[in-house]
Amino acid sequence: MNLVNAAVLPPADSLVKRLTRLNLRLLSMTMLLTFLLLATVTWYVARERQLHSAELSARLLANSVSPMLVFADRIAAQVELEAFSRRSDLLQVQVQLPDGTVFAHWQAEGQAAPLHALAPAGLARTGIRSSVGWSALEVWAPVRLKDELVGVLVLRESLASLHLSVLLLSTVAIALMVLMILVAWRGLVLVQRSALRPLVELSHLAEHIAQERDYSKRATIYRRDEVGRLSERFNEMLKRIEIWQADLRHQLEQEHEAGQKFQRLAHKDALTGLPNRLYFQGELQRHLALCVDHGELMALMFIDLDNFKKVNDQYGHEVGDEVLCEVSRRMSAAVRSRDVLCRLGGDEFALILPELPDEAVAEQLAQRLIDAVRVTMTISGAVMPIGATVGLAFAPLDASEATALLNASDHAMYAAKRAGKNTYRRAQHGMA
User: Which sequence ranges form a coiled-coil region, renumbered to this chain (predicted)?
Assistant: First the structure.
């Protein structure tokens, strides 16, 4: 798998957890509704079965007591009722004559409510009748002998056992339902974690790429379903971004190289290869700041070539350019590695001397430059009458600002010109 196990914090509400909660909620509601429906149906079915059993028992008992009513045998009828009272849910039972007089009666302890029989005419028309309440049921059965109504049998049974059975069954069902919900919760977590694994990994991959900006990663495709097609499109997008990023990086590198090249060209003299006036101005400011901050001594040389105009007029500009290149090479060979030699333009040069131990070092270097330029220079078979005049100024002794230091070295150079050329002079205080 291409996905790196990056340190990505899990989301506060993951898709797996949310779908598990929704599925469990739907499953719980469905099971609860099913339970309520089953409990209601079970209660109604059990009640109807008990009612049917009570009606059947009432018919049998009515047939048993009918001879006793004809022969007015109350004792036998009472014995029959007491034998019938062995039914666990029976609350009361009595036999009445057609005029409503109680012929025989039995009731469980604590039952004081009287039983009322239907009118004989009503029973004659409808046969057995029943009434069901919440806590008990009543059955009225006609007592006949050879199709003649001789009495009425009335019984009342409790529904407490039915309620207890339904409650016990409901408790067991609820316990099983809770157990099944727990099992379903565990199963849903495992199933949905497996089913949503590609989507979760895709989310972690997107988070990793957003943080690390690493577009070389790719999502793993497990199945050719909707998530698999999404992963394919995501990988295609990453590939395009990676190519675009590589192209952009290459373009930026080219632009950076071009910018550096242009910067070098902007700060480089095209003829001699030395730094130009623009570069010189920036370096002078920088070295002056270091000089002031560190309390160091530095010097600036203003160098002007002698007889250069004469060379240009007599031998031409091409020879003059060769002279400038040769002078640049000679002076570059004479200076220190940390010194900055620049061509300001024409036959004017400047040399920045940082970190000087004393003034004598700068004066010795000025003389060395003059001697290097005065060595016989032959170009196109002709000896060039070239020399160098140097003006020398020190910072912070003569000036602490770039313009003032440049003016001081320039004045010193003109003082050297007046002294006879091919020599150097150092600035006097007040020259700037």
Answer: none
Contacts of 33 (CB under 8 A, 6+ apart): none
- pLDDT value at 5 more than 50: no
Q: How is residue 42 written in tokens? A: 């079970």
For the sheet with 424-426, list strands across it.
340-345, 348-356, 297-306, 387-395, 424-426
Residue indicated by tokens 């000087």: 356
* DSSP annotation string for 63-107: HHHHHHHHTT-HHHHHHHHHHHTTSTTEEEEEEE-TTS-EEEEEE
CATH architecture assignment, domain 1-195: 2-Layer Sandwich (3.30)
Round to whole Å and give the CA distance between 396 and 67.
Answer: 148
Q: Which residues contact 95 (CB under 8 A, 6 or more apart)?
A: 65, 69, 77, 81, 102, 103, 104, 105, 143, 151, 152, 153, 154
Q: How far apart are CA 344 and CA 76, in angstroms?
A: 148
CATH architecture of 277-426: 2-Layer Sandwich (3.30)
Exposed e or buried b for every residue in 249-263, given b needs 16+ CB within 10 A? eeeeeeeeeeeeeee
pTM of the model: 0.47
Burial 85-109 (b: 16+ CB within 10 A, else e): beeebbbbbbbbbbeeeebbbbbee
Tens digit of each residue's pLDDT (9 = 90 or more) over 408-423: 999 999 999 999 889 9
